[in-house]
Write a structure and sequence with these properties.
- The complex is a heterodimer of chains A (423) and B (177).
- By secondary structure, chain A is an alpha/beta fold.
- Chain A has two domains: 258 residues, Aconitase, domain 3 (2-Layer Sandwich), CATH 3.30.499; 147 residues, Aconitase, domain 3.
- In chain A, helix 10 links the parallel strand 14 and strand 15.
- Chain A is globular and about 60 Å long.
- Chain B is an alpha/beta fold.
- In chain B, strands 4-3-2-1-5-6-7 form a seven-stranded mixed sheet.
- The N and C termini of chain B lie far apart (44 Å).
- Chain B is built from eight helices and seven strands.
- At the A-B interface, helix 2 and helix 5 of A face helix 5 and helix 8 of B.
Chain lengths: 423, 177
């Protein structure tokens, strides 16, 4: 009998569990390579302290990043941050990143902690983003993460896989954010629940690492367990720059002939800029349907779209222009490295000249950390969620779009098709 | 309780409710007993105010989507419900429920079969929900045995010491590299 062709998820979980011939629906204990926890690490620490006599098996696998509610806005939160800091020192955690680092997902990738074929669990649902580097990243709760600290393992269901072949070319003013919003609108918020989602096709291969991050990050809004882009030369170059030695060591590629529960073939050449309307991510419309809607605030930030390339995308539109008097523009670079690169290359100057407020790197307004809205106000955001109450008042509205659409809307003061400003 | 059969009056909740709307972010700093009164305050304002211990909550599709906040499960437990049945769950919510210790069952078709206030009987190991008013039995998706064990043990952290023990045995028994 011939060897069965396998999906990425089958291979990654076989590597992680040491069990061969996994089939969808089976449950195995896997040993994750990295355990990421963000500011909620304090909850993990408090849980750990209840486990009398437990020890941390692999302190080197713990990555802790103070990205949400940071820097501390209150004494209570300062106490949580301090608890994490002290814990990191006490347990010799080499991968503790303080309030100056940025968003956990981006920091981990920049620091070479995300490697192809490896399994990362994170106390953040957008841990699917690690698939951009060919890793198996998935979100877990804080008790689960704490259990992994002390047992080294976590149960996982072997998921069914879905393959999305993206082909064609992105036309001017259209970005991976638009592809994902369209997909989320078409498939709905539970369109890929519990699936491992593999992005393939000529367009996917042509995307930069930053663009692949946007794909895999937004994949979470389809309900996926994890997302994946097959690693290639671009991946290995990125990893080499991040200081990863022998980056292809554990790389895993799905076999031709592997079984997929669903396969979608999508040519995106005719795609227009998309926008997710209040108050759910799958309420997606082409921009023409909402162009002209007045906005009070524009937020360029989040793990979906605050990477260096995203800031450049916005700056290209804002260069030499001023934002509307009625609008406040918040730019929250995704990480310290992003911020430094943007400072060195004049991108921050361009944004500041246009009227932007640059905030410290981190989750920022996406996690309700500054940038709150009063009732009746409207924000257009580059983030990945627009649920009620996420940015202040429950009676405020959030639209989601690409950095280019956000920038164009900041200039006009109303939701604007970025192509109108790209002559 | 330990046999995971529950009888009680049901409350209903809608489709696609994110964790942020199970309990709003600014409510979680309240003592949990107080926060419980605000569970599902937008979707079903009567629920938090009048839910009684042992009641059963029946939700729609993809319940608990968005952020994987385990506090959403904790708040539901604080309401005193005995169990939660839904058309389907978001995956982080599903995991968190077993790990924090809330009995849940995925039962497609349940919403159309009930109205608020119906008496239900939920058999978790058997994976069924019986609607006493109509006699209809809805078949749910089976729950893996080890998750039921985790629930019996009080959730993942409660059973973690046993898991550590098991791991140590496995390691000491494994002499090959």
């Amino acid at each position: 009998m011939s060897v069965t062709a396998k999906t990425f998820a089958q291979k990654a979980l076989e590597r992680g569990s040491g069990v061969s011939d996994l089939k969808p629906g089976m449950i195995v204990d896997v040993a994750p390579d990295v355990y990421m926890s963000h500011t909620a690490s304090w909850r993990c620490i408090k849980t750990f302290e209840k486990l009398k006599g437990a020890t941390i098996l692999h302190p080197e696998r713990i990555a802790m990043v103070m990205d949400h509610i940071s820097p501390a806005p209150t004494a209570q939160v300062a106490g949580y941050h301090r608890l994490c800091r002290d814990f990191a020192r006490k347990h010799g955690l080499v991968n503790f990143f303080d309030v100056n680092a940025g968003i956990a997902h981006l920091v981990l990738m920049e620091k070479g902690l995300v490697r192809p074929g490896e399994i990362l669990i994170g106390t953040d649902s957008h841990s699917t983003i690690y698939g951009a580097l060919g890793s198996f990243g998935t979100g877990v709760g804080f008790s689960e993460l704490t259990a992994a600290w002390v047992t080294g393992t976590l149960w996982m269901l072997v998921p069914e896989s879905m393959k999305i072949n993206l082909d064609g070319r992105l036309s001017k003013g259209v970005y991976p954010k638009d592809i994902m919003l369209k997909l989320i609108g078409d498939l709905t918020a539970d369109g890929a629940t519990y699936y491992s989602l593999e992005f393939e096709g000529s367009l996917t291969a042509s995307l930069s690492i930053s663009e692949r991050m946007t794909l895999c990050n937004l994949a979470m809004e389809l309900g996926t367990k994890n997302a994946y882009v097959r690693p290639d030369e671009k991946t290995y170059e990125y990893l080499a720059r991040a200081g990863v030695k022998d980056p292809a060591r554990n790389a895993l590629l799905p076999d031709a002939g592997a079984q997929y529960a669903k396969v979608l073939d999508i040519d995106i050449s005719a795609l227009e800029p998309q926008i997710a309307c209040p108050h759910v991510v799958d309420n997606v419309k082409p921009i023409s349907a909402v162009a002209g809607t007045k906005v009070d605030q524009v937020f360029i930030g989040s793990c979906a779209n605050a990477k260096y390339d995203d800031l450049v995308e916005a700056a290209d539109i804002l260069k030499g222009k001023r934002i509307a008097d009625s609008v406040r523009l918040l730019v929250t670079p995704g990480s310290r490295e992003t911020m430094k690169q943007a400072a060195d290359n004049g991108i921050l100057s361009t944004l500041i000249d246009a009227g932007a407020l640059i905030t410290n790197p981190g989750c920022g307004a996406c996690a309700g950390d500054g940038g709150a809205m009063d009732k009746g106000e409207v924000t257009i955001s580059t983030a990945n969620r627009n649920f009620r109450g996420r940015m202040g008042s429950y009676d405020a509205e959030i639209y989601l779009a690409s950095p280019a659409t956000a920038a164009a809307s900041a200039i006009a003061g109303v939701i604007t098709d970025p192509r109108e400003m790209m002559r | 309780m330990s046999n995971f059969n529950f009888s009680g009056k049901c409350w209903v909740a809608g489709d696609y409710i994110p964790t942020d709307q199970i309990i709003k972010a600014d409510r979680v700093f309240l003592p949990m007993a107080e926060a419980a009164k605000f569970v599902l305050e937008d979707d079903n304002p009567e629920f938090g105010k009048h839910v009684a211990p042992g009641d059963i909550l029946v939700a729609g599709k993809h319940f608990g989507q968005s952020s994987g906040r385990a506090v959403a499960v904790k708040a539901l437990i604080a309401t005193g419900i005995s169990c939660l049945v839904a058309e389907s769950f978001a995956r982080t919510f599903y995991r968190n429920a077993f790990e924090v210790g809330l009995p849940i069952l995925e039962a497609p078709g349940i919403r159309a079969a009930i109205t608020q206030g119906d008496q239900l009987h939920v058999d978790l190991p058997g994976g069924t929900v019986t609607v006493l008013r109509t006699g209809q039995v809805i078949k749910g998706n089976p729950i893996p045995a080890f998750l039921l064990e985790m629930l019996s043990g009080g959730g993942l952290i409660a059973v973690a010491p046993q898991l550590i023990e098991k791991d140590n045995e496995a390691r000491s028994g494994n002499t090959q590299s």
